[in-house]
Amino acid sequence: MSIVQTFYDNLASQYDKLFFDWQAATKEQAEILDRLFQSNGFDRSARVLDCACGIGTQAIGLAALGYCVTASDISRAELAQAKERAAQRGLQIRFENADFRVLSKTFSHGFDIIVAMDNALPHMLSAGELDSAVKSIVGQMTDGGIFVASVRDYDALLKEKPPYSAPYIHETPMGQRVSFQTWKWEGEHYKLTQYIIDDQQDLQISKFECEYRATRRKELTDLLLAAGCSKVEWKFPEETGFYQPIVVAQK
Q: What's the CATH fold of domain 3-152+216-250?
């Protein structure tokens, strides 16, 4: 089992604690994506694949808006969470355990829109792995389709290589919950430790570890164009309202 699978399998049952209100986040993020899709000529009849769906944050929100959504992930534990959450809301979503580096092994048809949000692509720890992922994703897009992904602003982060991220402090009726990350850099790679401190009834401290490779915008842009995309645009939080830069690539 890879470090990425282990990280998300372990985090699955607590992933929603990274949000003040996960249900509200699914709605807000789906509305942001819906606007992006519509601005690129798609309506809610589009076939969408969320190829890094996690516990369903984007997939569930998009399905609630009426999109035909398929969702896949490398973590079986997160898929189980996503399936349960979709069922609780009565949403029809096809779920598959799949590695986005080899989507053709799981899917025999193309999708109008493929999404990979929340910094999923930088889990590719080498240029070759990232190239494989991009080729796999673009290969699963219909002609004229788009790929939408969010990536941390590594162009800025690599200048300073900060040792941690700012904490999120969520006040609740029963106390507070604090989540933050520490980052140990080694060149363009960094080992991330995610802490969740739940101080409501009983104090609980959880710790999860993973690794990322800082992906610059030019590198990803060049790979998308080389894989067959005709246009690549980057949109920033001040424009979209999403917390990370978003790339939109059209095939």
A: Rossmann fold (3.40.50)
